[in-house]
Amino acid sequence: MKEIVCVDNNWAIGKSNDLIYHIPDDMKFFRQKTTGNVVVMGLATLKSFPGGRPLKNRINIVLCDDPSFECEGAVIVSSIDELLRETAQYNTDDVYIIGGASVYAQMLPYCDTAYITKVDSESPADKYFPNLDEIEEWELTEESEEYDYNGLKYKFTVYNK
């Protein structure tokens, strides 16, 4: 499985249930990687999408501890064990963890690749991604050139375990 996320210099990812950065090339990269594949998310991430609807052209799996929650177009699971059973039917290379912070942290041990868009900035945040530079088994294996979007400098990176 893979994780895909955009972080700042402090590995911050969100504030008040929204992304910190909205960089068109990062959104395009996200679409390219996840379209036609399986995306795994928490309920808050699902609700942050337009209309609270699942992402099109993907299998959406939502980790939610409310057993009565239903969402057309999404598979709802209530535990990590159930999530692992559900994702076991797919090629692990086709499964992307897309947030939020607690789902990223809980699923990190099951992943072998992380696509991290690193923004050279620091923003107020209340949600963070685990700092892979401080986790021994993770290694930065790829790094793009630096890009600019409205004064924000960013790079696409890949970490592997």
In brief, what are we looking at here?
With 161 residues, the chain is an alpha/beta fold.
Keywords:
161 residues; alpha/beta; Dihydrofolate Reductase, subunit A; 9-stranded mixed beta sheet; 12 strands
Description:
The chain has 161 residues and is of the alpha/beta class. It has a single domain, classed as 3-Layer(aba) Sandwich (Dihydrofolate Reductase, subunit A). Helix content is 20%, strand content 34%. The chain is built from 4 helices and 12 strands. A hairpin with a 2-residue loop joins β2 and β3. The N and C termini lie close together (11 Å).
Topology:
Elements lengths: L1 E6 L4 E4 L2 E2 L4 H11 L3 E5 H6 L10 E5 L10 E4 L2 H8 L7 E3 L3 H7 L5 E7 L7 E2 L10 E5 L3 E3 L2 E9 L1
Parallel strand pairs: 1-7, 1-8, 4-5, 4-7, 5-6
Antiparallel strand pairs: 2-3, 2-9, 8-12, 10-12, 11-12
What gap, in angstroms, lies between the N and C termini? Answer: 11 Å
CATH-assigned homologous superfamily? Dihydrofolate Reductase, subunit A
Task: Tell me the total number of β-strands.
Answer: 12
Name given to the CATH architecture:
3-Layer(aba) Sandwich
The low-confidence parts are none
